[in-house]
Design a protein that fits this description.
Elements (H helix, E strand, L loop, with lengths): L1 H12 L11 H32 L1
């Protein structure tokens, strides 16, 4: 969770991304949405895996 927050802060404060595109407020929002969807997918997979492990005991 701490790593997710640190990367989110990094995405908000950078001026230029890796491709050299200047980060406007709209681009920052899009980047944070993509990052949030990625985190949500990881969280859902983790919860499914946890449910499978609990069910198998």
């Amino acid at each position: 969770m701490i790593l997710f927050i640190v990367i989110s802060i990094f995405l908000c404060v950078r001026k230029v991304d890796g491709a050299g595109v200047v980060q406007t407020p709209e681009m920052r929002n899009i980047t944070l949405i993509i990052w949030g969807v990625f985190g949500l997918i990881i969280l859902i997979c983790y919860l499914i895996w946890l449910a499978v492990l609990k069910h198998s005991k």
